Amino acid sequence: MTTISLNQESVATLMQADDAKLESVIQASVKAEVKTPVPTTPKKPGMLALKSREFFQWIIPPMFGIGLLLVVWTVIAHQSPNLPGPVSTWHSAVQLFSHPFYDNGPNDKGIGWNIVASLERVGLGFGLAALVGIPMGFILGRFEFMSRMAAPIIGLLRPVSPLAWLPIGLLVFKMANPAAIWVIFISAIWPMIINTAVGVSKVPQDYMNVAKVLNLSEWKIVTKILFPFVLPYMMTGVRLSIGVAWLVIVAAEMLTGGVGIGFWVWDEWNNLNVEHIIIAIFVVGIVGFMLEFLLLSIAKRFSYE
Question: Whole-model pTM?
């Protein structure tokens, strides 16, 4: 509440002034006493400050996580002398990646060649799984008879451990490299089949009724109705498959030998070079993360939502 007061000088003026002057003096006194509050607006932070805040909110939690991992690793390495710590592993990694593509014969290649060889096998096995699995998922989701026919086969074979397929591959293909690709293929195909079939089965019946009314061909139904609706489900299956494929390749290459990150890990274990094994673990994780990030970017780019 605002209070209004008249000082002694104003009262004296009032007593001597006539009525007209009295009114003007009163108004002047009121204006002098009443102070209109000036609204204050909070100062908005600048664009640079907002970007900096977002960056630190984005980077700080992962940095804390990595720091915690390094602390735990250091403590475990201090308790177990045979396990290298982060510092010695870092120095070994710097030396290893200073010449990643050296070639001293079939059994002594740089880590770069081993990563490339593993990526080639994963690319072939995963590509074949996509070529077979995605169309099969469309068929199983589109036709109930085919879905019921394939259900017991998928339910029987899907839980089988990927490495259990390796002897079958060695027996059929007579060579280690095709057998490793076969293991990747049979491991990566199930997520693509199942996710694609589930996506097709969830297409609203109204869409299919419209297709019948318009007398669309099966190709039109697949390309104009099913594919846009199923794409998110299909990309989820593709992402799961690439993760499975990259997981399986290490174990498969340990058993088949040759050039590859899995064989490289096993070779370093035989040489008791634990630092290189830890480096390989990080390499496998980083490459797997990059593959999934790449597929996620592709899925967002081609999303119909």
Answer: 0.74
